[in-house]
Amino acid sequence: MNHELTALYFMWKRELIRFTRSKSRVVGSLAMPFFFMAILGTSMNGIGSLPAGDGNYLEFIMPGILAMVLLFGSVFTGVIVIMDRQFGFLKETLVAPVSRTCIVLGKSLGGATTAVLQGLMMMGLAVALGASVDLAGLPVVIALMALISMAFVALGVAIGSVLEDMHGFQLIMNFLVMPMFFLSGALFPLSSAPEIVRMVSYIDPLTYAVEAMRFFLVGHSTMPIEISLGVLVLFFAATTTISTYLFNRIES
Fold it and tell me: I need a surface site. Which of 37, 119, 141, 190 has the fewest CB within 10 A?
């Protein structure tokens, strides 16, 4: 048991060290979300089609931009799995006398921690741009961000476990992650979207992440918070199970 906990700790620590040493990764992960926040959020404050209670447009898109940061930062863990496989570190990890489930959990916790840190940095930038954040609810928001991040980190690990090159992962990013973001209602109210877009959005797990973030940050969402949290928990359970299964199939 002690070996398992030690391995989990060092896998978590390794992800944090990799994150803190990669300044370009931090800047790159925040550049595009900041662009959306600064340009769209401040220039479209006069938009009149927002649901009641969502405030100005900056505060409306802030939860969606935070979910975007969590999504991109979390799924990026899949790239790390591929890099570890190419440079031989993964093989050394797999022959260690610990369960592969422990390795997956360590990577998930590490990836989720770095994603939450990126989310908190983006939240600080949003406040600097003029968005208001209730600090009393910050612990709940951080817990929600951790749940969202771990679910999408597990998705990234699952994808990285079946791919062996970066090019394939980039295709996944273009054809899976970006549509998930744009269909989640992060940048526009789903109530004003065409019916076909709303139907597709309801099968997008990021939609429920955005709605949950919006509920706790803005105090209003278009769907009950119980449904959003329930879907996120189920999504986390599903992606963790799948990622563990696929990671266990990697040949050492």
Answer: 190
